[in-house]
Amino acid sequence: MINVIGRSKSRIPLILSQTGQAVSVFTLCYALAAPIFATLLAGKPMRRILVLALAVFSVGNGASALASSFSLLLMARAVAGIGAGLYSPLAAAAASSLVSEQKRGRALGMTLGGMSMGTVVGVPLGLVIAEHLSWQGTLWLITALGLIAMIGIVIWFPNFPASAPPSLRQRVAMLTNGRVSATIGITLMTSVASLGLYTYIASILHNLADINNITPYLWAWGIGGVIGSFSIGTLIDRTGRPGLLMAGILAILAFAIFSLPLGLKYPILSFLPFVLWGAMGWASQAPQQHVLLHLQPNHGAATVALNSSANYLGSAIGSALGGIVLLAGLAPSQLPFATGCLVLVTLLGQLLVVLRKNKEQ
């Protein structure tokens, strides 16, 4: 995400569109890499795959920092997206396999919590580094952190094989399973709304309330993400109703996004919608992963990869759609309303999934 404040008004739509393109390339490659490489590398030692993924991710970020043109930057972001797409779903599957089924929700929540902590610290820190050094400095920091994580996995992570890859028949059955496809579809729509809108948070704040310093709002969003991702796992384990929890998450997410314009008018309430938005956006992944691991217990890595793929594909679609509608003349202040309506449609779909499950039981 780049800061568009202070740029000439004639260039803002182009800058916003390029921002959307860079985000879309990363997330699209993430989405494609997750299911493909999870299948190709299934059965290999988990530690080796995770190290490989972090190596690809670090190379992509280093190449992004060295890119001399926008085209080269897009190619480098694609490489980084492939590495992230391989790493994240396997990390979630590994976490769930290290604990009993009764603690699976908390394991998934801890994994997501670590990712959200990275966002809480990483996004504001990256903005500070970019302001004082350059955006390339931020990418070099991410590259270094990836290398440190590689060393940590080599030293401390247990070396056990990933699950055997599903056969073609099993893979087709997985995709044609009504509950699996419905769960992944809800994940996709949630991501289109939540992560797609996040791409344009700077322009939304500036357009709605003439806010130039977005860092406090990024902190609020990220802190909410930490709260949501660390707490949702315990709720899943205690209630045993991940589908119903997902419906509640979508309801609160819709409220948070619709209330963004109103909240910004009152300083004492301005950060609350961002906290709720971040909390519900991050919390939405664990219930979906839990459902899929229950539906496909023998192919956990593959199903979690499909869910992660849908999550980041939704982010790519949301970022691209945002860039398209902004270039077409839609004001950034109107994006929260359009996104809120999409979340309500997604909530309706999730309620239908829950009702259908209850009828089948």
From TrEMBL:
Keywords annotated in UniProt: Cell membrane, Membrane, Transmembrane, Transmembrane helix, Transport
PROSITE patterns: MFS
Gene Ontology cellular component annotations, sorted alphabetically: plasma membrane
Membrane-protein topology: Multi-pass membrane protein
GO molecular function: transmembrane transporter activity
Domain spans labelled Major facilitator superfamily (MFS) profile: 1-358
Stretches assigned to coiled coil: none
Major localisation: membrane
Annotated transmembrane regions: 20-42, 49-68, 74-95, 107-127, 139-159, 180-205, 217-236, 243-260, 266-283, 312-331, 337-355
InterPro entries in UniProt: MFS, MFS_dom, MFS_Efflux_Transporters, MFS_trans_sf
Pfam families named among the record's database cross-references: MFS_1
SUPFAM superfamilies xrefs: MFS general substrate transporter (SSF103473)
Subcellular location: Cell membrane
Protein name (Swiss-Prot/TrEMBL): MFS transporter
Provenance organism: Paenactinomyces guangxiensis
